[in-house]
């Protein structure tokens, strides 16, 4: 067998006796890591592609050895692709590709990002309903968890871009839950999806533009603002703080931390506000003293 041949028959770099899939994985991984060393804690995407005639089972045996060896070195496999992605005239063989991940590349896995949102919303179902029950009808957590859970099922196992994943959230919220929250949150995610549809990299400025377009889409259907004891009391200050951090030259992660603090402060500020919009506005002063 020959190692390092090209897809069009270019000569390889080494000829050796036939090896098992597991042994071949170790040999090829050594070649790759000699050229691209990986530090402990590094995250990678692994692509294992057959050349057309290699059984898929063999490809997975090969991949299993790759993952085992990377894990032993403290390298985390963030995502794997195993199959016949780049073939060569039904030839027996396999190719191995490793891609180092950074924060920007990692965010392109939209289904994983949204799956994280789903877990957070569903796990806070009771908490959200409890807060809503103080001055509302107590179904906010139930409805939000229902919509996000529907989205989670719809995207499960699909390699989606961030725009596609946000589209799935928007559709699930608009079509799957009742009340005003479906259109409101659905519009927010619709705007964010449109903003990143043509993005290949999501850096801090693209992230800011995404937030701003989501807010703009929401404001197209709602006149609510800061001080109305609603979503805007959290969303608007959070986006403003993120923008300020970006303009001051803060890193992406530092800007996110600042945004989180602003969101928490905005949330807490609703405790002393009187509701001016939505069902709770009918309560007047009685709406003061609880979070929205």
UniProtKB/TrEMBL annotation:
Keyword terms, alphabetized: ATP-binding, Cobalt, Kinase, Nucleotide-binding, Transferase
Enzyme Commission identifier(s): 2.7.1.28, 2.7.1.29, 4.6.1.15
SUPFAM superfamilies reported for this sequence: DAK1/DegV-like, DhaL-like
Domain of life: Eukaryota
Organism, scientific name: Anopheles maculatus
Domain spans labelled DhaK: 1-120
InterPro entries registered for this protein in UniProt: DhaK_dom (IPR004006), DhaK_L_YcgS (IPR012737), DhaL_dom (IPR004007), DhaL_dom_sf (IPR036117), Dihydroxyacetone_Kinase (IPR050861)
PANTHER family in the record: TRIOKINASE/FMN CYCLASE, TRIOKINASE_FMN CYCLASE
Job description of the protein: Catalyzes both the phosphorylation of dihydroxyacetone and of glyceraldehyde, and the splitting of ribonucleoside diphosphate-X compounds among which FAD is the best substrate. Represses IFIH1-mediated cellular antiviral response.
One of the record's GO cellular component terms: cytosol
Pfam families: Dak1, Dak2
GO BP annotations listed: glycerol catabolic process
Protein name: Triokinase/FMN cyclase
Positions of the DhaL domain: 108-292
Subunit structure of this chain's protein: Homodimer. Interacts with IFIH1 (via the CARD domains), the interaction is inhibited by viral infection.
